[in-house]
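Request: Could I get any protein with tokenized structure?
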Amino acid sequence: MTNQDFSIPATMRAISQDVLGGPEVLHQVELPVPQPGPSEILVRVRATALNPTDWKHRAIGGLFLPEPPFVLGWDVSGEVVAIGTGVTLFKPGDEVMGMLPYPHGHGAAAEYVTGPARAFTRKPANLNHTEAAAIPLAALTAWQALVDTANVQPGQRVLIHAAAGGVGHFAVQIAKSLGAYVIGTASSPNHDFLREIGADEVFDYRTADFAEEIRDIDMVLDPIDAAHAIRSLRTLNPTGVVVSIRAFGTEFLEEAEKLGGRAEILLVEADHTGMTALANLAEAGTLRPTIAGVFPLADAAKAHALGDTGRTVGKIVLTVD
């Protein structure tokens, strides 16, 4: 391990929980600062963002993690303070952003975290740590759906559900950078926002049925649930695909087979190449995070309570001083 002149304490603050439940189960703890193993870096966390997976794991568990206690959080922006054996991408002092390997690499709601070097990329100079922390998990999900899974091409018609949310607002911007025609579903108060970030067309899901009115879609990104993903199959053209990040189980895939459509279920993966592509988009000003709220680490419970509302536009971020 190399740490040069960085002073690394023995312990750190982190946000943990001993039981499942509401935001009130979260509390601050003191834990040992982890040490980077081979091919890992130790990052001084400056900010970490929340995602729906955080409050779902906090509240109901049973998804991917064992029973608490655990420290949640996958998004990281901060500085490298030590490197493990074999790391060549970064040196202590480098500013980085990234997503810890999902789901078992959690632990970003803390002052320090370790992770594989290739789960990170250099933080764009035009973003502060709060902005950079908002990008990784949500934007990487959108990137892997649009680029790696659907291979969206210029001129294709892309339908993005919950387009004002964390994944959705990044997906709109990424799809536009690919040259797609983008339709976003959202409630009417968010329509102006979606147009500002590049949506060509907006659809109010509260006043009309998208499955009855939208047709000839090449790619649908659905972050809602299996039933919604199944209904989205009806919007596709013969070569289209619905990519769901929530339709776990067999029903969605079975229904697609009946209808002759293509269905994919995506679980985001740590990815240096994808993170670097996103950083390049951010540096060019093509990808910008929208921040719904910023809270200090000690107020993680308040941040989770905001996330629980399901009514935020963009991302919620915890800053770590």
Notes: The CA atoms of residues 152 and 279 lie 19 Å apart. The longest strand covers residues 40-50. The chain has two domains: 11-135+289-319, 138-265. The domain at 138-265 is CATH 3.40.50.720 (Rossmann fold).
